[in-house]
Amino acid sequence: MHETLEAIQMTSRKPVDGDLKVYLSISSLFLVMVLGKLPQIIA
């Protein structure tokens, strides 16, 4: 499992990879914020 993950990371070394990581981190952060405030919105 670990070797395949490293192989995938090595093959996915493209210029898009960096932007995709930034997009994923921002979207996950936004998702956490929305889920954190969801009880306040419902209440």
UniProtKB/TrEMBL annotation:
The chain crosses the membrane at residues 20-38. Keywords: Membrane, Transmembrane, Transmembrane helix. It comes from the Archaea. This is Cobalt ECF transporter T component CbiQ.
